[in-house]
Amino acid sequence: MDLHDNREPQLFSPEFTKNPYPAYARLREEDPVHQARFPDGQKGWLVTRYTDAEAVLKDPRFIKDFSKLFGGSMDQMSVFTQNMLFSDPPDHKRLRALAQKAFTPKMIEGIRPRIQDITDELLEQIDGKAKVNLIDEFAFPLPIIVICEILGVPSEDRDKFRMWSNSLIEGTSGEAGVSVYEHMNEFIRYLGEWFAKVREQPGDDLISRLIEAEESGERMTEKELYGLVSLLIIAGHETTVNLIGNTVLALLEHPEHQHLLREHPEKIAQAIEESLRFNGPVEFSTSRWAAEDMEFGGKTIHRGDLVVVALNAANHDPEQFDNPELFDILREKSPHLAFGKGIHFCLGAPLARLEAQIAIDGLLQRFPGMTLAVEESELEWRPGMIVRGVREIPVELGE
Q: What is the pLDDT of residue 8?
């Protein structure tokens, strides 16, 4: 299959980033386990069909810990991989259990009123403005405030977290003369200083409980503490920012669904599930490596080969979803893979769902006349191999 011809945009090009779905359709049809060159220069396999994607996500032969195959660490940012997302059993189970305490159904439901209060406060702040950027003024601050309160770090530092998160996820600092590694070192220094404060004055927050586990020397190492907290700060807001943003865009493109949700707010959970399927906030799975030689999807995959799942491609597979290119908030069944599958299913999925439901419902009820202030073609999609979302959503809030 030649994806470099004139019929479709090249994989990972700016054109592909704007609308990857035509290329995904060709891949599913012609070469569903596709050997690709990824933006970081690595060569590996890109999986696009739903059944293959689900299999990769659940198969223990595809491992997450790079060092098991090659030894050492991938690069100087390895401190950010010392967490459950980049580990395999038994370490994965141990690390996930520590973080799980903050994401139980009871805990999530318990912070519903606080999420509602934050949403109302943010909506009040933008009310009366003719034009706003919904990413900066609504979609970003809501989840970062929530995760900061769960962890016990100052929410006033949220702009720093955003800068560091963007560096790690997009692979660029966004600042002239400042490298990604400088930003990562700043983040590590910040965490170290904050951990020192918490050791002096522990509280009832998650970081205090994690430090207690680290100090016991039985459940977590210092590197794992850094890795897990950085993951929770970054993943704890990135998914929701883009879920809110992508849902807003889909609803602006389908005003009949805006009207339906305002009239029937009880449909909001279905709408969020459809948004997750239709244009999910996580474009690709994190890296996996084949632990052994195998035949998979008609291809010979060798031990050590990189394998990546195109989650949004799988979520548009017509073998799994009727009319997958149709945005339908009344879609009854949606076994999408937006949050992954298997032991690495996103720990924060219940929190992201709840935040998005409250945010979108509040936005639609407060601003029924909201419209996009620019042409959709003018929106800039974020680069990188992880998230799918736009940098800005300029809207006119209407009367």
A: 40
